[in-house]
Amino acid sequence: MLPAPTYYVPYYRVSTARQGQSGLGLEAQRTAVAAFVADSAQLLGEFVEVESGKKNQRPQLLAAIDAARAVGATLLIAKLDRLSRNAGFIFALRDSGVAFICCDMPDANTLTVGLFAVIAQHEREMISKRTIDALTAKKARGAVLGTPANMTPAAIAKSLNIRQENARTNQQNQQAARLAGLLHAQGYKLQQIAQELNDGGYRTRRGQLFFPMSVHRLLKR
């Protein structure tokens, strides 16, 4: 007798209303889900959230969880970071009684998901604190914060893009280093750590896959 097929309830999230209207990011998530599931008949509708990653009020996610629970289906997310950067939120989802799986980390266990969640939240909090501390110190030195010439819409958009890219690159590298350290402390070998980082979507500063030697360098920083 063939095993019964697994049914999935896809959940997609985009960060802005503009992304939701244009389909930017959403189509990539749908493509990842389509590649993960062998038969589209296994997909039971879809739930799309337009929300900030920092906020945990997710009515569509709650609806997706209820739908999956009602039919015994698995909640399917394209990427782990589509859920939330809040560790407590991911742990609450983990304990909701509904199975969930991420296309980019299909073999992730409870420990791995927890580590990623804690690291992501810690990095977000540290970036916020460093920004506030830097602005406070600059203001204390008498600096005038803000330059009228830099307040045009184009200048603001350019500055925002630069800050977001710098923060993403720095955050990714720091997260990789912290995760590598945690896994190393648990006895993982360099090759195993490299595999975990690559499976989690992490890359080196040059955008390359991790290998044992690059993990070694990461651990020595």
UniProtKB/TrEMBL annotation:
Top-rank taxon: Bacteria
Cross-referenced InterPro entries: Resolv_N, Resolvase-like_N_sf, SSR_resolvase
Domain Resolvase/invertase-type recombinase catalytic positions: 7-142
Transmembrane segments: none
Cross-referenced Gene3D superfamilies: Resolvase, N-terminal catalytic domain
Pfam families to which the protein is assigned, alphabetical: Resolvase
Signal peptide feature range: none
PROSITE patterns from the UniProt entry: RECOMBINASES_3
Key words of the record: DNA recombination, DNA-binding
Name the UniProt record assigns to this protein: Recombinase family protein
